[in-house]
């Protein structure tokens, strides 16, 4: 069936990219129209009533329903357990404030660098976090629903970041926008292959949110039969996971994957590796006990701050995150192993996908993972020996053959190799990290999906910021 250029779907891509990268203009526009009062609007759902707000934005009327609950608070004994659907309520829930972020730390690398700071939670963080934000045109009726799954390496992220304000997308694309939340880090992905900590809890949170949307979105003017998922980084990887998961089948028919795929090296752990990480964390907080049940109970007694304080002390490889999706579990993938499913094409193949990457996928991560040579305040330059060292660090846990291949591919013609420090060599490292940890896996997935019933589109984003 041949990979298709974006064509008609490109407008949707642009709106998604606006939602991800371009909504700084939304804040300015909001400030300009802040004198206009918000009008309360109520929606009666199956299990209770909520009160949102209607306002004027981009000279149009838009309705916002924020912090809409879809699950019971996963606190106390429910930590590490699958989510439970929100029970009926008798009062009217105030849906005028952005949803809290699930419990996470803050990136303190450089608080004056907006490229880092903009990803930090801008609302309170809490284990009680199973809420979503919804935006819809005031006259919405049977519109396509775009469900945003935020990224953040499964350890950070929020549906309420300034960049993810859905008003502009809802109005310009005439869709209903839903930003969902899901548990992160050990709270969402710790794994002991036990009913009290089965792993992939964050994925089950996402799935529960999808069920809620399918059941309730018509009350907001959305069409439950026309749901499109879009996500960035871990959010994009999550979409692929839902193509495999039996419980997610039939929920969505389109997906936009921005800079992420389930086969990314940082996205998917084997059960063995996931269990190793979980026991390492238990060791670090003095919770490894003689039985799994006792270990889990001890971890539930630790404060969230105690768990997060040790999370980055795990024995991690280059661009390996503390916790990720586990390839086989009891509740989410069930009878499937995700590694096997990807290679044997055991996933939904009737979904239309747009898969994309950016020009500089590696740059951001090299600041954190190769700090000796990459810094946010300077344009990096490398010598040949320094490039070789970067390759050795990036592929330290892989066979020497891989490191040799990387040196061959990214050094190019020996006659063109710089003799001293060079920006070109630093650019080669940026490209290498981006290719290996993001781009190549996305292209591989597109090739895998190309002979299915769904259409496959690819984009490459290379417009620099100004």
UniProtKB/TrEMBL annotation:
<dbReference type="GO" id="GO:0019695">
    <property type="term" value="P:choline metabolic process"/>
</dbReference>
<dbReference type="InterPro" id="IPR029058">
    <property type="entry name" value="AB_hydrolase_fold"/>
</dbReference>
<dbReference type="InterPro" id="IPR019826">
    <property type="entry name" value="Carboxylesterase_B_AS"/>
</dbReference>
<feature type="domain" description="Carboxylesterase type B">
    <location>
        <begin position="42"/>
        <end position="465"/>
    </location>
</feature>
<keyword id="KW-1015">Disulfide bond</keyword>
<dbReference type="GO" id="GO:0005886">
    <property type="term" value="C:plasma membrane"/>
</dbReference>
<dbReference type="InterPro" id="IPR000997">
    <property type="entry name" value="Cholinesterase"/>
</dbReference>
<dbReference type="Pfam" id="PF00135">
    <property type="entry name" value="COesterase"/>
</dbReference>
<keyword id="KW-0378">Hydrolase</keyword>
<keyword id="KW-0719">Serine esterase</keyword>
<dbReference type="GO" id="GO:0005615">
    <property type="term" value="C:extracellular space"/>
</dbReference>
<dbReference type="InterPro" id="IPR002018">
    <property type="entry name" value="CarbesteraseB"/>
</dbReference>
<dbReference type="GO" id="GO:0003990">
    <property type="term" value="F:acetylcholinesterase activity"/>
</dbReference>
<feature type="signal peptide">
    <location>
        <begin position="1"/>
        <end position="31"/>
    </location>
</feature>
<protein>
    <recommendedName>
        <fullName>Carboxylic ester hydrolase</fullName>
        <ecNumber>3.1.1.-</ecNumber>
    </recommendedName>
</protein>
<comment type="similarity">
    <text>Belongs to the type-B carboxylesterase/lipase family.</text>
</comment>
<keyword id="KW-0732">Signal</keyword>
<dbReference type="InterPro" id="IPR050654">
    <property type="entry name" value="AChE-related_enzymes"/>
</dbReference>
<dbReference type="GO" id="GO:0006581">
    <property type="term" value="P:acetylcholine catabolic process"/>
</dbReference>
């Amino acid at each position: 069936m041949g990979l298709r250029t974006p064509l008609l779907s490109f407008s949707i891509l642009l709106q998604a990219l606006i939602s991800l990268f371009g909504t700084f203009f939304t804040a300015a526009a909001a400030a300009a129209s802040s004198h206009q009062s918000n009008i309360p609007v109520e929606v009666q759902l199956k299990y209770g009533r909520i009160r949102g707000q209607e306002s004027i934005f981009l000279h149009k009327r838009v309705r916002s329903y924020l912090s809409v609950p879809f699950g019971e608070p996963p606190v106390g004994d429910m930590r590490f357990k699958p989510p439970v659907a929100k029970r009926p309520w008798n009062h009217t829930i105030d849906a005028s404030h952005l949803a809290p972020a699930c419990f996470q730390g803050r990136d303190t690398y450089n608080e004056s660098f907006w490229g880092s700071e903009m990803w930090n939670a801008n609302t309170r963080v809490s284990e009680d976090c199973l809420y979503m934000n919804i935006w819809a045109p005031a006259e919405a009726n049977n519109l396509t629903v775009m469900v945003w799954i935020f990224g953040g390496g499964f350890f950070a992220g929020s549906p309420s970041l300034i960049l993810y304000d859905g008003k502009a997308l809802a109005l310009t694309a005439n869709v209903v926008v839903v930003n969902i939340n899901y548990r992160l880090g050990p709270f969402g992905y710790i794994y002991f292959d036990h009913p009290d900590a089965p792993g992939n809890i964050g994925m089950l949170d996402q799935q529960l949110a999808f069920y809620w949307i399918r059941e309730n979105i018509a009350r907001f003017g959305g069409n439950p039969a026309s749901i499109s998922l879009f996500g960035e980084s871990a959010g994009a990887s999550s979409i692929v996971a839902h193509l495999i998961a039996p419980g997610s089948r039939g929920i969505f028919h389109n997906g936009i994957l921005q800079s992420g795929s389930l086969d990314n090296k940082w996205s998917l752990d084997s059960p063995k590796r996931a269990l190793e990480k979980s026991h390492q964390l238990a060791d670090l907080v003095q919770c490894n006990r003689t039985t799994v049940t006792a270990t889990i109970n001890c971890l539930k007694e630790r404060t969230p701050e105690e768990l997060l304080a040790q999370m980055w002390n795990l024995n991690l490889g280059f661009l390996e995150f503390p916790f990720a999706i586990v390839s086989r579990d009891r509740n989410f993938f069930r009878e499937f192993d995700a590694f096997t499913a990807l290679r044997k094409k055991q996933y939904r193949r009737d979904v239309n996908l747009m898969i994309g990457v950016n020009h500089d996928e590696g740059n951001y991560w090299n600041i954190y993972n190769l700090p000796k040579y990459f810094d946010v305040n300077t344009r990096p330059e490398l010598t040949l020996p320094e490039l070789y060292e970067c390759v050795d660090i990036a592929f330290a846990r892989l066979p020497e053959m891989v490191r040799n291949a990387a040196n061959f591919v990214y050094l190019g013609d020996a006659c063109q190799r710089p003799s001293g420090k060079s920006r070109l060599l630093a650019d080669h490292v940026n490209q290498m990290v981006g290719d290996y940890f993001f781009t190549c896996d996305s292209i591989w997935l597109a090739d895998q999906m190309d002979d299915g019933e769904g259409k496959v589109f690819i984009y490459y984003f290379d417009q620099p910021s100004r």
